[in-house]
Amino acid sequence: MEAWIDQLLPLLALPKFGLSTVFIISFISATLLPLGSEPAVFGLVKLNPDMFWPAILVATAGNTLGGALDWWMGYGAHKVADKYKHSSHHTRVLAWLERLGPKACLLAWMPLVGDPLCAVAGWLKLPFWPCLAYMAIGKFLRYFLLTGSLAWAFPGLVHLGG
Description:
Layout: H1 2-13, H2 19-30, H3 38-47, H4 52-80, H5 88-100, H6 114-123, H7 128-153
């Protein structure tokens, strides 16, 4: 099994392209397209252990900018569909998000709900820059914790600097 994983990781990380690939995959995975960036981040770190922090930061930047794109798409959709009537469930969810404000974007890292959450933040016209800051914090913590956990699970794999 481990040999199979060792063969798969170079393909997922695309080491020939490195950080630019991590950025693009992280950006695309933050949009509403179903794509996960974690395998590319971990693959790059496995092949280049000294790239732990650059990979985390580049993935965070790409994923945050993808979240920003979601915000703008939601903002634009709201302008188009201002007169749309919401069901009671949608109304409760929107009220909860309005009450939480930009802090709700801390949850932008979550699978399935995180990307649409960024779009809804734009739809609700929540302040862009605070939303972007909270997205970045949540996404950084996700990449740091996931990649750090994998590094812990496979000791000797990653050199964290120093």
